[in-house]
Design goal:
516 residues, alpha+beta, Alpha-Beta Plaits, 2 domains, 6-stranded mixed sheet, two-stranded antiparallel sheet
Length: 516
């Protein structure tokens, strides 16, 4: 056994758990939430509007300050993007401060030059930060992600135009400067939305910081939309429920900058994986394509034109039928890509993806994850003697016997050539031994019939390992199982070896020899 696996963990000093502080990002979530609650409690307590504005600006500025602290704590690779986020938030805070200052002085703040310039400056900084992340996280142009982002952006643009920008442009009681100020912000929101969707649909790691950052973007865009509609219907009133959405966005931004996973947000994945059209992604795109018919339905209720309703219903049905057809084709394609043609087992790539998920689940639950590697003995002799079609029959029958020996939650797969693998969740070294011996005995129990009449004796060698105790990572698990398989073949074949090889011809934690 590896000594490092058996060394007891150091005992924490007495009282250290009591003195342990919550992580910085949790602390910011608590502080930001408390300040947001105070923001709405102050008017009830009889405080002035100035004190309420000060608390609001503290939360707004706190989001940017938290990012600066996170950069110093975690030293992210994409530090420039995080500094751009902090600068963008500083512009927004500056706009808030100047807006509230002008309001206190009794001046018209809604369309004053200084607040609006500061508010507008946040958009290019925010867009640049998102572009830096997108370029760092994705190799190449990633055309599918660009197209998916464009689909949703076009739908959002239609909604903005019909219910926000269009009414503002055609409003008769607005001065040209007011109309320009109210239109330019929704347009900038749409540009930020486009880049945000590109980041969302692209590659790269997706830790807690990633989701907190997306939460900030969606909350701010939602608040901006509500603000625009509120301005269109009546005057915006500071301290309303719209402010709560902005405050939640600022808190999410600060938590994203303080979470340790922010350091990896700019990392490019080690291998480029094609875009997987998941059910969630298809549902999102289908919802976006239904926006146009829904707008026609709204117009039907406004105008009473029955033709609009007919066109809307027909368009929606056609969209859904096309999406359903695409989903069926993608499901069939996914099954073909994940299933080995000869054996009917999962492919090696499917095994690796499942292994990553099961490893994470085992780490959370404190259970072990086992892996068996099964190799057909003298398979080249079968191909040379009976031909490759007969060899395929041997592989298919061996796969059937392996599958029949496994539990429902186990995943048998073709690992390559004449080698198979079995992923065994919630396993133990003893359970692996029993399963491996069951597989070995099932394969050797009776010959495999090929060409309808030829009987071929087939045996397998099996090597395996469990994580823990034999490995700490998925890579170690595969290497340890492979080493055990190599030792089993070199110790006479038709053998089972489970655990770490210690030397010689392959001593391992457990050794089973078939009966003579």
């Amino acid at each position: 056994m590896n000594p490092s696996l058996t060394t007891p963990a150091p005992v924490p000093a007495r009282g250290s758990a009591r003195r342990r502080r919550p992580p910085a990002w949790i602390s910011w979530l608590l502080i930001g939430s408390a300040l947001s609650g105070l923001h709405y409690a102050l008017p009830v307590l009889g405080a002035s509007d100035v004190s309420q504005a000060v608390v609001y600006c503290l939360v707004s500025a706190g989001g940017g300050i938290a990012i600066a602290i996170g950069i110093r704590l975690w030293r992210p690779q994409a530090a420039s993007a995080w500094w751009l986020f902090a600068a963008s938030q500083a512009m927004f805070t500056g706009g808030d401060i100047s807006y509230y200052t002008l309001t206190v002085l009794g001046e018209e703040a809604d369309y004053s030059l200084l607040p609006n310039i500061l508010y507008l400056l946040q958009y290019p900084l925010l867009g640049l930060a998102l572009m830096v992340f997108s370029r760092r996280r994705t190799a190449g142009r990633d055309i599918p992600a660009v197209i998916d982002a464009a689909i949703i952006t076009v739908s959002a643009t239609l909604l903005y135009w019909m219910f926000l920008i269009g009414p503002m442009v055609s409003a008769a009681d607005m001065l040209p400067m007011e109309r320009l100020a109210t239109v330019v912000f929704p347009v900038m929101d749409l540009l930020v939305l486009t880049v945000a969707l590109r980041l969302m649909f692209g590659g790269g790691s997706r830790g807690c910081s990633y989701y907190l950052l997306l939460g900030f973007l969606w909350l701010v865009l939602l608040a901006d939309s509500f603000y625009g509609m509120q301005t269109l219907i009546s005057d915006y009133i500071p301290g309303s429920w719209v402010d709560m959405i902005w405050l939640a966005g600022y808190i999410s931004l600060g938590a994203a900058g303080l979470h340790p996973s922010m350091a990896r947000l700019g990392e490019r994945p080690h291998e480029h994986r094609p875009v997987d059209a998941t059910g969630y992604r298809l549902a999102l795109l289908a919802s976006a394509t239904l926006v146009a018919p829904m707008v026609l339905v709204v117009q039907y209720f406004q105008r009473g034109d029955l033709n609009l309703l007919v066109v809307a219903c027909a368009s929606a049905i056609l969209f859904l039928l096309v999406v359903a057809r695409m989903a069926g084709l993608l499901a069939a394609q996914r099954r073909l890509a994940s299933t080995d043609v000869v054996t009917g087992l999962s492919t090696r790539r499917s095994l690796q993806e499942r292994m990553a998920r099961e490893s994470s689940r085992a780490g959370r639950r404190g259970t072990a994850l086992g892996l068996l590697l099964v190799d057909v003995d003298h398979f080249k002799r079968v191909n040379d003697t009976y031909g490759h079609p007969a060899g395929d029959e041997v592989l298919a029958e061996t796969a059937r016997r392996i599958r029949a020996s496994c539990r429902a939650q186990d995943l048998p797969a073709r690992f390559g050539g004449e080698e198979f693998a079995v992923l065994v969740p919630q396993s133990t070294p003893e359970g692996l031994v029993r399963l491996a011996e069951r597989i070995r005995a099932a394969v050797a129990a009776e010959p495999v019939t090929v060409d309808g009449s030829v009987h071929v004796s087939v045996t397998v060698s099996v090597g395996g390992a469990a994580m823990p105790p034999h490995a700490r990572t998925v890579e170690d698990l595969v290497q340890t199982a492979d080493g055990a398989l190599y030792a089993a073949k070199h110790s006479g074949r038709n053998r089972v070896l489970i655990g770490q090889v210690t030397g010689g011809t392959g001593a391992a934690d457990r050794r089973f020899h078939p009966a003579a």
